[in-house]
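User: Can you help me understand a structure? I only have the sequence.
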Amino acid sequence: MAFRQSWQPLQSLKIATVPYSPQLSIAPRLLALAITLALPLSAWGDDDVGPACPVGQFHCAKHADPWRMCKRNDMLDFFTPGLPATGDRSKALTDISAKKVSRADTDHSLLDGEVWMQKLDQLLRSDHATYDNITTDYTADGHVYYQDSSMLVSATHAAGTATPSTTHLDHITYQMLKQRGNGTASDGTMIDAEHSVMHDVTYSTCDPDAREWEFRARDLTMDQEQEIGYGHNVTMAYHGVPFFWFPYLSFPLDNQRESGFLLPKVRYTSRRGLDLTLPYYLNLAPNYDATIYPRVMTERGFMLGGEFRYLTDSSKGSLEFTYLPHDRAFADEQHVFLAQNPGLGLSTYDDKRTSFIFKDTTTLNANWYAAININHVSDPYYFRDFGDSLVTNTTSLLSSSGYLYGHGSWWDASIGADFWEITDPTLLQSSEPYKRLPRITFEGDHELLGGLRGGVRSEFVDFRKDDAVEGQRLDVYPYLSYPIEAAAYFIRPELGYRYTSYDIRNTQYLPNPLQDTQPSRGVPIASVDAGLVFERPLTLFGDAFTQTLEPRLYYLRVPYRDQNDLPVFDTQLPTLDFGQLFTTNRFVGADRQSDANNLTLALTTRLLNADDGAERVSASIGQIRYFDPQKVQLPGIQQTNYNGSNYVGELDIRLNDRWRIKLDEQWNPNTSQNDVASVSVQHRFNNNGILNVSYDYRRDLLKQIDITALYPVSDNWSLVGRFDYSLLSHGVVESFLGVEYDNCCAAFRVLGRHYLKDLAGNDGNALFFEIEFKGLGQLGEKTESFLRRAILGYQTP
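Assistant: Let's start by predicting it. Here is the structure, written out as tokens:
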């Protein structure tokens, strides 16, 4: 058995021959074994690290230093400052001194009182030392101290020989300097320059007087030649109680990874029962590795998973898979689900469950690179049964793509393909989007003459789908623009022409079989975007600010073209937001180009700190005024004759580093009611406390309140929770409650979760447990990453 750790060995203390009398030279390589227990931070590093999280941040990185707020836990206090930090030990000489130097005879030397042996950053001190000039045997007694740039070591006795180099130490205590970590050993022997052994070894990052966890080994053998260490009868203890035992353990002595078992993951969910994963890591080569995930679920059976990662000079990627040969619960669950959803004509699937993910990014040269992202699951129920987040569980479509991207100083291009899989069991196969095989894009923008710019946006797609209309679409939009910009204003006129043509296949699926199979559309597009920026100084509550007033006008003119004979492959009408008030097309996709004789009127004001320019308040409101009816619509959508769009408003207030209020509102003047509303409040308190309250509303679609919190009860104890409730369906979308304990030595979290498993309204329960031994690793599910996604602004203490 092996730990996947990056153990860093300490170099031997190589003391050169330094004469301090005509016939005496000492070369004791004391503590050459150097206690190679320099355990680093866990090899299972989290996805990102970072500084303190700003108020309102949606994703907060993990702190880079888990001990940044911890006091020193010194086990030894004899550190001598001022030693050289760099240099070549193999070429350095050793300074030796003592209060008294004498000879027992012509062959034996005695050193007494403040014995000092130093080579660069390596320092050995003792009360007494002896040396045999013939045999090169030596001893050191009484407060034997050793230090270098990475650690301190004390022992009661040292004995050995300089030639050949051997050293034996008794009653060892050591402490790391570059990171937290300390421990003991009953004795240790350096057999030669490359081999050493220690007995009754301990290690922990905890304070010496509060050892919550401890790593223990009956013996540790270090093979510097093979750069590997071995341990026997190894245990992990928590509060003195052993909970893991390994009869044999191996680990690397350098920064190289080592094959072996990782700490297991344990969780419980209502759909999977007790869920145990025991990963095994394979260090195949310096630039690629693999991890095998044997997984046992009491409700479903045995699943095998794996991940292969690689890194080359030009590419990096990974391949992941899971395979469950027989899901014991799947057949019965399908029958229940089909009975709950009669009349939909849903399919049934085999009880063999699989998933596959392949990702690759390859740089071809300075201008071109390739990116591949392939995802596959065996059935639409997969995420419902094996996903652990609401986003994953309710994902309706699983996308895959592969592209070749190019870019230059004035152009961008791509060629590739996109396709999707349905992952919602309530959706029929006909709901699957069109595959784009291939999709080619080219965009360019370049100055032509005297500020006049020319550009083009183009796309070619071949749409494919079983039992449906298929075809190719070419969309080209060349344009000219003449932007005029300054600090206080901007004017951006643009004139373009959009041409779209089709070559349609599978015409038997057309609404009208006699419809033209090669339709096209050409339409000119003219727009002017203009704005002003006014500023004034302002004093509020004794603080100096700068207030801006930013009016903006956007005029768009697009003549009407009848597009009812054009197919709809990938075009949608998105939800209106503030940014869409200033676009040339209210549709997303080239199958429809909206007609327009519109004027957008918008106003923004900001409140900026006069000292540092930080934005404290931002408020915007805008509306599109329609001078002509909007005739172009998607199939099945009735034409509207409104005089204007919704009023779209945004308000963002950062009162200070502890409060943030955000409001988004859309008021429909045509129906005199709100269509969209969203309000969120975040408050930070104490050191790490967070309270988030949000309300989201979409008329006839969504009415939801979400409360999340991290409440520090004390310096070490915190409560975490979430309550996400739908006021439309009168049901809980997700709720969880947990407790976490965190100090400078260990952390653990226990979390109970109730969540919506799918869009059909089925729910589930889960219990998560995690314990982290800081400086070594963690056991259980990674709840911290889940909490950072669920709680706005969550960050570990």
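Now, to help you interpret it: The longest helix spans residues 330-340. The longest strand covers residues 489-505. Let me know which part you'd like to focus on.
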